[in-house]
Amino acid sequence: MEITLFSLVSGKKATIKRLDGGEEFRKKLASLNIRVGKTIRKITQQPFQGPVVIEIDNTEATIGMKMAKKILLEPLEVE
Amino acid sequence: MNKADGYLDMKILLMGNPNVGKSAIFSRLTGVNVIISNYAGTTIELKKGKMKLDDQLVEVIDVPGTYSLEPTSKAEEVAVNMLENGDLVINVVDATNLERNLYLTLQLLERDIPVIVVLNFWDEIRHLGIQIDAKKLETYLDVPVVPVVAVTGEGIKSLVSRLHEVKAHKNSYSEETRWGEIGKIIKDVQKITFKKHTFLEKLEDMSIKPLSGIPITMLILAFVFMTVRFIGENLIAYLFDPLFEIYLPAVSALSTMLGHSGFIHDILVGTLIEGKIDYIQSMGLLTTGLYVPLAMVLPYVFVFYLVLGILEDSGYLPRLATLVDTILHRLGMHGLAIIPTLLGFGCNVPGALSVRILETKKQRFIAATLMAIAVPCMAQTAMVLALLGPYGIKGLAIYFVTLFVVWLTLGFLLNKGLKGEIPETFMEIPPYRIPYFGSLAKKLWMRMRSFLTEAIPFVLLGVLIVNILYVFGIIEWISEAAAPVIVGILGLPKEAVAALIVGFLRKDIAVGMLLPLGLDMGQLIVASVVLTMYFPCVATFVVLFKELGARDLIKAIAIMIISTLLVGGALNVLL
Asked: pLDDT per residue over B70-88, tens digit each?
């Protein structure tokens, strides 16, 4: 089941399956090591269409809502 | 390379991802003090210094952070262009994020330039349950790899001694094979074991989740305001005022020597108020000119920068930026714009410089304009505290709430009215770190020094100009001409115009000039708000001119004047 980072429940982990954007989008995300195959944890989502905060490796990153809708994930069932 | 005069024509570049400690290493190598904080983008321009290598001086350049050598932003372009002129790269790598950082390392190893890799935050990896085999990494990369702790200086000697072993490689990878290679390296050199969540890590999550993060922010802001006010007031009452009491007999003697009046007396000592020197009202170079910057402003500036430094070094600011991102998007900026805003509360000059961390012209224009209009610098705030403080919290509350409403409204309108897009937020949030005392103290000292060297000459110049303008009757002439606006719209006495003129040089001394006018609380609030909004001080003006260009600066100033008249007029009617 593929869901977007935007709809992933806060606190859950997931593996990145697909990045629904062009070359530039992919490169931008890769700068923080957000790439297909990596596992991330969604920490929280700011209210009123605000940005999503994720944990990747030992970093946290804030990602705008529209970008978060273009990051497609496979949720991990067990922590 | 030219070895003739003991100066080696060699450029060493410090390169790496943002917030990996390049500036801390730069400062260790060159002895040049630079501002170091715990968020990406502290260094906004190239910083140059010299270090000794084999008894010869070489140039070291602190390059702004970049994630890759395919420039996606202006700052990254600067970094990539620097490569053409460098002779050696010290690639600073965040050991706690090795995988991501190695991407730039591999790209650097494709260029025809010798590289040495520095693994910073070496002390932190153990707590994180990470083990890195630096020797093995060295074999893979085939360049020296040196673990360091930049803030304490651990490992810096070994870095310098190994600068001879640098190598250039000219590898060739594609993006795909680069990540493949990194995967292979990481698998072999890095081991991650289970780690317990520390208190700081729990706090990281708590302070970025809206339900707990917003109350935490409120607490922090209230704490900052109260600390600044409390410590500032006490420094004045128990340290600076007594010092100026000790100094009083000296200026009094000078006043007597000069015969208590006359042109020279008025310039140096000022006019006597009821036969006595009044540090605030006398307006002499040796009285008001020293008392205002040293005894009224400096204590607050000191506490503010101390608290700001702790916030910067802890890593809290990017979290605050995330929490306010949604609001700031409605105002035509994004979360990171909170950083120029906060810096502006200290002094508008570094605030205006740091709008560069925003990507588009529209964002930079809005952030700079809003800061210049609605963010009072600490010098000004200190004087407003002195002026409105006696009326209790009410006057101060009206002053700050008015500016906040102006900031919100104007941002909203500018966002609607200006063309250009607001890119989505995408930023790295650093881990919380306990501020390191040494770098905190150094940063505070640098900021205090720039306050002392930049503020005091302008305050003195301001005092001198006031005296000259009064002596030649120029102030009276301008007061008459400006009376319809000052009296008619703002409801202030026409003498207040002198403060507006001086406000262009220094806002603190201008606020002080309101005291002798015998204004009531309403008028004091109107005058304080007007002085904050109407025009930036000359130092900020110069930076805005450089950052925005003439056209946008004129636009910004038109916005300032119009909104000042509207807000000042409205307050005059309401209060």
From this structure: 877 666 788 888 888 899 9
Q: Angle B160-B309-B390 (CA atoms, 0-180°, nearest 5)?
A: 160
Domain positions in chain B are 7-192, 210-574
Contact flag A53-B70 (C-beta cutoff 8 Å): no
The distance of A78 to chain B (nearest Cα, Å) reads 16
**Which residue type does B95 have?**
A
* Whole-number Å distance between alpha carbons of B295 and B248: 13
Structure tokens at B358: 């925003």
Closest CB from B128, B322, B428 relative to A46: B322
Task: Give the mean model confidence (pLDDT) for residues B408-415.
Answer: 97
Antiparallel, parallel or unpaired: β B145-147 and B115-120: parallel
Instruction: Supply the ipTM of this predicted assembly.
Output: 0.95
Q: Which domains does chain A have, with CATH numbers?
A: 3-75 (2.30.30.90)
Residue B410, classified by CB atoms within 10 Å of its CB into exposed (0-12), middle (13-18) or buried (19+), is buried
Asked if A78 contacts A4 with a C-beta cutoff of 8 angstroms, the reply is no
**Closest residue by Cα to residue B228 from B414, B376, B24, B442:** B376
pLDDT value for B492? 94
Domain B7-192: CATH architecture, name and number where available: 3-Layer(aba) Sandwich (3.40)
Q: Are B459 and B509 in contact (CB under 8 A)?
A: yes
- Give the per-residue pLDDT at B1: 43
Which residues in chain A are closer than 8 Å to B426, comparing Cβ atoms?
Answer: 28-29, 32, 61-64, 67
* Residues from chain A contacting residue B425 (CB–CB below 8 Å): 51, 62-64
Query: Is A60 close to B100, i.e. CB distance below 8 A?
Result: no
Residue A47: phi and psi, rounded to 5, are -70, 170
Suggest the residue from B426, B427, B428, B432 to mutate for an interface test with chain A (most A CBs closer than 10 A): B426
**Interval B284-305: pLDDT, tens:** 999 999 999 999 999 999 999 9
Are the beta carbons of A53 and B322 separated by less than 8 Å? yes
Contact assignment for A33 to B100 by CB distance below 8 Å: yes
Angle between helices B393-417 and B550-574 (to 10 degrees): 140
DSSP state of A62: E
Contact (CB, 8 A) for A45 and A64: no
Task: Judge residue B83's burial from the number of C-beta atoms within 10 Å of its C-beta, 0-12 exposed, 13-18 middle, 19 or more buried.
Answer: middle
Instruction: Please give the residue of chain B at the shortest CA–CA distance from A55.
Output: B429
The predicted pLDDT at position A57 comes to 87
Biggest CA–CA distance in chain A, Å, is 33
Question: pLDDT above 90 covers what percent of chain B?
Answer: 70
